[in-house]
Structure formats: C-alpha cells, structure tokens
Write a structure and sequence with these properties.
Blueprint lengths: L1 H14 L4 H16 L4 H11 L6 H14 L2 H13 L5 H17 L2 H18 L4 H12 L9 H9 L8 H30 L10 H27 L4 H19 L5 H34 L2 H12 L3 H16 L4 H18 L4 H16 L6 H10 L3 H6 L2 H16 L2 H10 L7
Helix pairs in contact: 1-2, 2-13, 3-13, 4-7, 4-9, 4-12, 4-13, 5-6, 5-11, 6-7, 6-8, 6-10, 6-11, 7-8, 7-18, 8-10, 8-18, 9-16, 10-17, 10-20, 10-21, 11-12, 13-16, 14-16, 15-16, 15-17, 16-17, 17-20
C-alpha cells in the first residue's frame, strides 16, 4: 500500500503541473506519513544524497558550458563547419549538424547547444530560404549529441545514480559515449541531407578552399581543445574526473578572456548566475531523488518491475525493447536529470540481469533521455528551438520523423550491438567496465 501511495501521489502531482523536484519530495513525504515513519527520514536521505565529493564536477561542468555559451565559441565553430560542408545540397543544415556536435562537445549540454547554435544558425537558415521547421529540427536533434560528450554533467549524474547497484567510473562512460556520439552525428547528417533532397533545397555557394577551412579550424581550435584536454588528462592519470571539470572552467576562462577576448564582464556575471541556478536545481533534484530512491528500494520496486517484465518475456531482446519504450515514455514527462535519477535504480538491475553492462545501459539511458528532450510535453530543447525559429511545436512535429528515425537507429545500434559503446572502455582499461 505504501508503494501505491508513493506512485499515485507522484503521478497526481505531475498531472497537476507541480515541478518534478517538488512532486518527488511531496510524494516521499506522503509515503512517510502513511507508513508512520519519522519525517526526518526524507531530509536525512536528501542531505546524504548531496554530500558526495564527485558532485563537485557538476557545477564545474555547468559553469564551463555557460562560459563557452557566452564567450563567442559558437560563431567560430559555425564558421568552421560551414567552410567544411556548407557547399553541398542542404549544406547549411549539415553545417548546423557538425557545428552543434562540435559545440556540444565543448558545452556538454543540449540546452546550451540549442541556445547558442540555434540563435546563430536558425535565423541564418531561414534567411537563406530554408523552412523554419527544418532549421529547428536540424538544430534541436544535432544538439542532443552534447548529452553523450565528455563535458556532459549528465554522465556524472548517471554514475551517482548507480551507487549501491554497480560501480561505474566516469572514465568508462566518457569513453563509451564517443562512438555513439559519432553514430548519432552521422545519422543526423543523413536525415538532414534526406530532407534537403526531398524538399529540393538548392546548392548554395562553392567550396571555399582548404585554406579557408584551415583558417576557420585554427580559429575554433582553442575552444575545441577542451575535449582533448579532458580525455588526455583523465586517461593519463594527470587529474580525476572532478578535477577535469575544474580544468574545463579554467580553460574556458583562458580561451574566452585572453584568446578570443569575447567574454565581457556582464556576460561573465550572466554565466555565473545561470550556472548557480542550474546547479541548484540539479542538486535539489539529486537530493530529493535520493529519498525517492530509498523508498523504491525499501518497497522492492526494481524486483517487482523485473518480475512483471519477465512474466511478459524472457528474451533479452524483448526486455531491452521494453526498457527503451518505458524510458522514452517517462522521458516525455520528466527532465533529463529526473529520468536518470528515478529510472536508473529501477531498470539497471533488470538490464544487468539480462546481460547488459552498466556502462552500456548508461549510454542507452542518455540517448533515451535526449530523445525526451525533443518530445512534448517536456521537450526543453524543442521549445527553445521553436521560440528561436518563431514556429509552432505542432508544425515542427509534423516534419520531425526523419530526425526521430535517426535517433532511433542510433538507439537500436547501441542497445543491441554492445561493441559500439563498450569497445573503447575495454580497449583503454578493461577494469573500468563494471559487470
């Protein structure tokens, strides 16, 4: 009965429009009252869930992304991407995909990616004769690659959500996300090119020459180096994942203040304020989800869910498909961090039971959450893109299917072909891959 109270209270609060963090917290308090437990249990679990040293990586990665957002990195990346691929049919859309992927690697946030690249590319694409819905779909889907990049704070959140279930290192997740990020980029390029051909977008301009490509690359290189620094530093043992986040902030300041000289004091204050607000929301959600997770473990939610799913089928292929469908459905109603924190304790034990590595499951989880960011009613990236493009969500949804198809192809490959996500972690250090 306590589990029923927890579930119904949480679902009812979400339907009423209560923010996710407060829905989780109030549902936990209602369960405590019904079970006759001390209310202090909720607050003890909240405080304990936030008092982890590794959490320091989250505000640092968020702050680094905001500095990159306000520091003029996006314009240089756009120039490089456009010089490289802008001359083919639908070239501006494909340049958008490449640019969003590169900036996603720098910022590590799909929302920041859409805000930065969308504000540059969507108006430019509309000016060049591209339809608004195409410009928005290309931008919002390409930005999702940022969730898999080394600078993504969602990787940190997932490793912490696995506490008590499996030991997953940040390094293993960073390495596991690189090939899926490349696959997703290629799928997005294919979708952008397919729609451009179908709509008959013309070829605009000629190849500017390799000298222009090289000049644009050199201009964008200082910002792009952050990914190399993080990977090289962690793999070589120079610093930990938490220290790499602090290094990312330092490098972002050096690039935007001393190299590009594009970060004003006003923009620096805005970046600080935005990072503080985002960090506060994420940490509050993590703390409250710790209490929620305690009750799910206490009332054996993962075990009961596993029993229900195995009663339908004992085939790993079917079980993994069911997990993906459930994650997609939940991701349309919950924000990315909330989906990771709530669903990982439920579905990770089931995935492990049927032979999926926790590291592979982490990438599957992140892709599903990214798909949710572009799906109403809680499609954050889609709402931002539509606002920039001045087009309705309904119009965008009518032409979204090729881009959804690109995401689903990547998701199925990562789900059913483990080597796509597991090859690099096993290559560099087999011991980092938890079983």
């Amino acid at each position: 009965m306590e589990l029923t109270v927890l579930t119904i209270a949480f679902a009812a609060l979400l339907v009423l429009g209560v923010p996710v963090a407060f829905s989780i917290g109030l549902a936990s308090v209602a369960t405590v009252w019904y079970a006759g437990l001390p209310t202090a249990v909720v607050f003890q679990k909240m405080v304990g869930g936030m008092q982890i040293f590794s959490f320091l990586a989250i505000p640092f990665f968020v702050f680094a992304g905001e500095l990159m957002l306000y520091g003029g990195i996006a314009q240089r990346i756009v120039r490089f991407a456009n010089s490289l691929i802008g001359h083919v049919r639908g070239g501006l859309g494909m340049s958008n995909v490449v640019g969003c992927t590169l900036f996603g690697g720098v910022a590590g946030s799909p929302v920041a990616d859409v805000s930065a690249m969308g504000s540059v590319m969507i108006p430019l694409m509309k000016k060049e004769g591209y339809d608004a819905d195409y410009a928005v779909n290309v931008t919002t889907h390409a930005a999702l690659v940022g969730a898999l990049m080394p600078t993504s704070h969602n990787l940190i959140i997932f490793t912490l959500a696995t506490t008590g279930i499996a030991s997953v290192s940040v390094l293993s997740l960073i390495l596991a996300g690189l090939i899926p990020a490349l696959i997703l980029t290629l799928c997005n390029l294919a979708a952008a090119y397919y729609v451009a051909i179908k709509r008959g977008y013309p070829i605009r301009g000629a190849f500017p020459g390799w000298s222009e490509v090289l000049a644009a690359f050199i201009a964008a290189l200082p910002g792009l180096l952050i990914v190399v620094i993080i990977l090289a530093g962690i793999l070589s043992g120079v610093f930990t994942a938490t220290e790499s986040a602090a290094t990312a902030v330092l490098w972002a300041l050096i690039v935007t203040v001393f190299v590009y000289r594009s970060l004003s004091w006003h923009d620096f204050i805005k970046a600080c304020a935005k990072a503080c607000r985002t960090t506060g929301v994420v940490l509050l959600l993590i703390g409250i989800s710790s209490a929620f997770g305690y009750f799910m473990a206490l009332y054996e939610v993962p075990q009961k869910t596993g029993e229900l799913m195995t009663s339908v089928s004992s085939s790993p292929w079917v079980i993994f498909l069911m997990i993906n469908v459930l994650l997609f459905v939940l991701g349309t109603f919950l924000d990315m961090a909330a989906t990771i924190l709530i669903c990982t304790p439920i579905f990770l034990p089931i995935a492990m039971q049927f032979g999926m590595s926790p590291v592979q499951f982490g990438i599957v989880m992140l892709i599903n959450c990214a798909l949710g960011l572009n799906t109403p009613p809680v499609g954050t990236t889609q709402f931002i893109g539509c606002a920039i493009g001045e087009v309705s969500v309904g119009t965008v949804m009518r032409s979204i299917w090729p881009f959804y198809g690109a995401l689903l192809v990547c998701l199925m490959l990562v789900t059913y072909v483990p080597s796509f996500s597991m090859w690099l972690p096993e290559l560099f250090n087999p011991t980092v891959v938890a079983k």
